Amino acid sequence: MEERLNDLRAQFFEDAKSVADTDALTALRDKYLGRKSGLIAAEKKRVGSLAPQARAEFGRLVNELGDEVESEIARIKEHLAEAAASSALERERIDVTLPGTRPRRGHLHPITLLRQRIEDVFVSMGYSVEDGPEIETSFYNFDALNIPPGHPARDSADTFYVSKDLALRSQTSNVQIHSMQRRQPPLRVIAPGRVFRRDTPDPTHNPMFFQVEGLNVDRNITLADLKGTLQKFVEMMYGANLKTRFRPSYFPFVEPGAEVDFSCYVCDGTGCRVCKGSGWIELGGSGMVHPNVLLSVGIDPEEFSGFAFGLGIDRMAALMYGIDDIRLLYENDVRFLEQFA
Ligand code: FA5
Predict the structure, then answer these.
(1) Neighbour count for residue 17 (Cβ, 10 Å)
(2) Nearest residue CA, atom 26 of ligand 1?
């Protein structure tokens, strides 16, 4: 009889060795201590079938075995709980001596970088930097700029209208009017900012791009001042040996008007891929402020004269950084933008 119980004990300790988690422990407990079908319960049931003199002794041994199994299961339970706690500790351990991961630092957009350079150049020539509204009334967008009703520049095919009288500005020239209304001449301002046109995107066009407007109004301002200023600007931006040229052109708010080009800084005017073989690169529009524009803000054109210009910053950026498609500037692809850090 005792041998049966010893075998059962040995079997139990053998089974207990392979218990690795609480599910296996529950199964072990059910196998040995289960009330109905547990192996120890089965032994207890046998007590009644034994000879009366053997019953007490066998009963005591079965109970002892039951207690032993119970306390071993309790010990395993405690051991599993300790192991779980220490493995959680290990998992969550923080090594404070490891080097940290640095947050990625951002940087300014290439258009902003170029805009700041342009501002620095003009500030060094005595210009102040002004801002103007991007949504503008017809007065500032057109009327005061000598663009009469019916002029093609007012066409909704070119301009984004917000309402009948409000539109997104299609050029920074609106700031000329605000500046002259705010202050009397002498006046020297530049106004960089965003402009909007219904242009189909292509490598040199975007429906939203940046311009910088320049305005200089004083007594005796002449075309020579305009040429000298833009020549100096080109030298400071691109190099001292460059030349500028002025081609007659028409803008309603200047008379005379001119497109300004500068000699290609890559090939020095001999013709290359950057200047498309012509030796010249287009900078923007310019001219002497039209008397009607001065009159629209109450400045006497007999006493004062001025020059103005408007340059496209996106195309300047394309040339300066060797970007062959200005649409890349607004795609926000970090791999592209990272190059200008
Ligand atoms: C003007 O916008 C005039 N306001 C410039 C001016 C100011 C003339 C003051 C006289 C006096 P224009 O439409 O040519 O001019 O535009 C000027 C520059 O903006 C162009 O040389 C070009 O560099 C840039 N530009 C024009 N359209 C786009 C476009 N869709 N995408 C990117 N750049 C453009």
Answers:
(1) 8
(2) 312
Percent of the chain with pLDDT over 70: 100
Q: Among the atoms of ligand 1, which is closest to the Cα of residue 286?
A: 10
Angle at 210 between CA 204 and CA 212, to 5 degrees: 120
The dihedral sign for the CA sequence 159, 162, 166, 169: negative
Residues 6+ apart with CB under 8 A from 284: 211, 259, 260, 309, 310, 311, 312
Of 179, 251, 329, the residue with max ligand 1 atoms within 8 A of its CB, to mutate for a pocket test, comes to 251
- Residue 286 pLDDT exceeds 70: yes
Of 142, 170, 209, the residue with max ligand 1 atoms within 8 A of its CB, to mutate for a pocket test, comes to 209
Spacing, Cα 337 to ligand 1 middle (Å)? 24
Q: Which residues pair with 285 in a beta bridge?
A: 259, 310
The bridge status of strand 208-218 relative to strand 187-196 is antiparallel
Strand partners, 136: 167
Calculate Rg over the CA atoms of the chain: 44
Q: Is 206 in the pocket of ligand 1 (CB under 6 A)?
A: yes
Distance, CA of 294 to CA of 305 (rounded, Å): 8
306 lines ligand 1 (CB under 6 A): no
Q: How far, in Å, CA of 285 to CA of 274, rounded?
A: 20
Query: pLDDT tens digits for 64-80?
Result: 999 999 999 999 999 99
